[in-house]
Amino acid sequence: MGVERSLAKATERLLNLQDTQGWWKDELETNVSIEAEDLFLREFLGIADPEVTRQTANWIRHNQRADGTWATFYQGPADLSVTVEAYWALRYAGDPVDADHMAKAAAYIRAEGGLERSRVFTRIWMALFDLWRWEDLPALPPEVIFLPKQVPLNIYDFACWARQTLVALTVVGAHRPVRSMGLSLDEIRTGAIPPERELAPPGSPARRFQRLDQVLHLYENRPQRRVREWALSRAEQWIIARQESDGCWGGIQPPWVYSLLALYVRGYSLHHPILAQGLAGFDAWTIVEDDMRRLECCQSPVWDTCLALLALADAGVDAEDPQMVAGARWLIDQEVQIVGDWAEQRPHLAPGGWAFEFENNYYPDLDDTAEVALALRRIRHPDAKQVQKALDRAVVWAQGMQCSDGGWAAFDADNCSPLVAELPFCDFGEVIDPPSADVTAHVVEMLAELDADAMGFPIDRNAMDRGVQWLSDEQEEDGSWYGRWGANYLYGTGAVVPALISAGVPADDNRVVRACRWLESVQNQDGGWGEDMRSYVDDNWRGRGESTPSQTAWALLALIAAGRASEEAAQRGVAWLVEHQRDDGDWDEPWYTGTGFSGDFYIRYHLYRLVFPLMALGRWVQATTGEG
């Protein structure tokens, strides 16, 4: 099949993509609401630039489909809120209402109920420009900052990404600022009732929260002045304390944008160092190509680097290779050693681990921590003691972040309150951070592999065993596992099976056998695997979709770990990867296989199409030749 040649080409390609500082990073692509909201932000702050607007509008038009709509992922169904924001951005850029592409978009919006049926976040942006009434949005009083963590609906009941966004929006909503954009959107209004205003069933949690929202609106009309100003000042300081050194907040776009808005309406000028640094930080996230401008919603250098190092190690690159050592050195320098928001649940736990981005010290995550540890153990760093100490800290922190049920979440421990999702405000994305199979699997694999090294790492085997039991309990009836941060059951299953094997579960164990049977049952006729993002909302798409390099690799990683590298399914999968490889060693993958919020927000990791196939091919060669 020419696997060795394919492996060599992919290895060379990945090595050539390394930055001179030792890291790897490729683009994270998402939907055009990111670009639309960037234009709205710039207009609101008075820093709009005609050339920026023109190039951004070019990108938005480029992503419009033939039916006039926009989606949240490649070849996905039309999304109303994204289409509303894209249409509005093009109106702002000067596209006439009667242009064919605009008329098609407007017709779709009206057919879906109009802008009134868009998500709350879209209508918050409209309120900033007098296109929606602040009074008609769900109430978000800044006094929530005072709620202690023992009280339901305190800010730490929300996941870190939602928490940072929520605090900033309470400030913006309290000020209710309005700017004129000089246009109306009457042509896409229908008079429909917004979703959160539809009466929930009597006695349901949603109905009770609707009543709470009515009470909060009464308070919003006449807030206690001193308490309100105290709350706003407290929220302001909370926001300022969490700005990262590169100007961002949380390493992701939503809290970054809303934090800038919050501080601006609090009276900070654009020349203030906090706002100036925050605005300048967007430059590193901006991509201009072919007269089109787009932004990344996040950046993933730590994640990309540890995955690249793992893939190269699997491909046979020497542990002392200078590029491998350079990558390890950069990762060591990125270790988080300050206390972040996670300490609200684990106040006596010492810091450790790694974050996803260049700068995100308040929010290291268990996923990156586990994969970085797995990568570092594969490289002979010249300062072995330094690596040992970093991994010791990572192990202690990761074990301390285990949830009470035995699983691991991404950023927080026991962040599982079901109440917050019932709030009228929470109609977009996931707002809590419960344990997930993929993160739990990666942590279990880390603990098992480090324990096997016999290097004296402070491994708590009870923690690992509880993680294995959690994974066993979470296995789906068909044998797969749900993937929280990647699409979807292929990602979850591709993570869990290698973890179980590393933890000592035999390949003939029923859990592993059922998982492999499921993978074989959903393999495509062409030999690859693929799963459409619609599997998050429709079980008919579970394990179904056009074959992709990254998802084919995930399936292969599970089959290889289970000792099935020589069986037909694995051989066909490897053949698919070899056949579809480009001449430069890379693969094409326009599909989105990364998940932000299931059902709402998806990500195309541009490096996934290379690192995971390289990983799978390398492990397949080791398994079938006895090398490694």
Structure description:
It is a single chain. The chain has 628 residues and is mostly helical. It has helices spanning 3-16, 33-45, 50-62, 80-93, 100-111, 120-128, 160-175, 205-221, 225-241, 253-265, 273-281, 301-314, 322-333, 366-376, 384-400, 437-452, 461-474, 489-502, 510-521, 549-561, 568-580, 608-625; strands spanning 28-29, 286-289, 292-295, 594-597, 601-605. The strands form two sheets. The protein has a three-stranded antiparallel β-sheet, with no helix packed on it. Strands 2-3 form a two-stranded antiparallel ribbon. Strand 4 and strand 5 (601-605) form a beta hairpin. Helix 3 (50-62) packs across helix 4, helix 7 (160-175) packs across helix 9 (225-241) and helix 18 packs parallel to helix 20 (549-561). The longest helix has 18 residues, at 608-625. The model has no long low-confidence stretch (mean pLDDT 94).
